[in-house]
Design brief:
globular, about 260 residues, about 15% strand, alpha/beta
Length: about 260
C-alpha cells in the first residue's frame, strides 16, 4: 500500500511541476505573513496538547467521514481547545486536497500542519503558498539526503517540520538533523497495524531538547493518559474525532475537560 501511495504521489507531482515552477511558487510566498508557531502552541500551556485532524478516509479503514465541512470543523476544533489543526491533503487514498487546507486557513487562527507524503521540494514551496505553518516529513519514505534537503528548505522559508519516525533506526536518522519536533507514529506504515507500545518504547530514546508528538491509535481519554504517562508533549488525533457524532464533545473528553 505504501508503495502504491508513493507511486501515485510521484505521478501527481509530475503534473504539479508541469503546471507551476518553483520560481513561481517562491514569488507567491515572498510577501506572506510569518507562519504561526506550531511548537509554541503545543507547549504554551504546559499540558498535553492536541492536534485535531481533518481526515475523510484511510487506506486501512476506508471512509471515516465523507461529509466533513472543513470550515465548520476547524472552527469547532479551535473552540473545543485543540492547539493546532492537521489537514490531510493526499487525494487518492485519503480524499484530501490542498483546497481543504486553504479553507482551514481562512477559518482558524490555529497553526496548520500539512500532512501528506512529501518527497520533493516543490511540495515544500506549495505548502507555504497554500497557508500551512508546518509540514510532516516521514523518515520511512525519504533517504537521508531527501530528509536533510526538505527539512532545510522548510526551515529556510519559515515552515516548521515534524520528523515522523516509527523505529529506533529512523530516530537515529532523524536526530542527525537536530529537529525541534519529533512525531512517533504508532502505526506501522508497512502493515498499517497500530500499537501504543511504539511510543512507549521510543519516547525514552528521544533527546530532551525536542518536543514529541504521539500519532495514531489514540481514541479515548484512557489512551490520552497512557501516552501522557510516557511524557510526550502532544498527540495527533484524526479518526477518533471525525468518526464521533459530537466532535466538539469528543475533543473536550479527550482533553479531560468534558462536563
Amino acid at each position: 500500500m505504501l508503495e502504491q501511495i508513493i507511486k501515485h504521489k510521484k505521478d501527481w507531482l509530475d503534473q504539479l511541476n508541469s503546471r507551476s515552477t518553483i520560481d513561481d511558487m517562491a514569488k507567491s510566498v515572498r510577501n506572506m505573513r510569518p507562519a504561526r508557531g506550531l511548537r509554541t502552541n503545543l507547549t504554551k500551556d504546559n499540558k498535553l496538547a492536541l492536534i485535531a485532524e481533518i481526515k475523510r478516509r484511510s487506506p486501512s479503514r476506508g471512509i471515516l467521514n465523507n461529509t466533513i465541512e472543513v470550515d465548520r470543523f476547524v472552527r469547532l476544533y479551535e473552540e473545543a481547545g485543540a492547539s493546532a489543526v492537521s489537514i490531510l491533503t493526499e487525494d487518492q487514498f485519503f480524499s484530501g486536497s490542498i483546497d481543504d487546507l486553504k479553507m482551514a486557513r481562512e477559518n482558524t487562527s490555529l497553526p496548520i500542519l500539512r500532512k501528506d507524503f512529501i518527497i520533493e521540494e516543490s511540495q515544500i514551496w506549495e505548502s507555504r503558498a497554500i497557508g500551512a505553518d508546518a509540514v510532516l516529513l516521514i523518515a520511512a519514505i525519504l533517504s537521508d539526503n531527501q530528509l536533510y534537503d526538505l527539512h532545510a528548505l522548510a526551515r529556510e522559508i519559515g515552515l516548521e517540520t515534524i520528523i515522523e519516525i516509527h523505529s529506533k533506526e529512523e530516530l537515529d536518522r532523524a536526530w542527525r538533523l537536530k529537529p525541534e519536533i519529533i512525531g512517533i507514529n504508532n502505526r506501522n506504515l508497512k502493515t498499517f497495524q497500530v500499537s501504543l507500545n511504539t511510543v512507549e518504547n521510543l519516547y525514552p530514546l528521544i533527546p530532551c531538547n525536542a518536543i514529541c508528538i504521539s500519532e495514531s491509535g489514540i481514541k479515548t481519554r484512557d489512551d490520552m493518559l497512557r501516552v501522557q504517562e510516557c511524557g510526550v508533549d502532544a498527540v495527533l488525533i484524526g479518526e477518533g474525532i471525525v468518526t464521533s457524532e459530537d466532535p466538539f464533545g469528543k475533543i473536550r473528553e479527550l482533553l479531560g475537560e468534558s462536563e
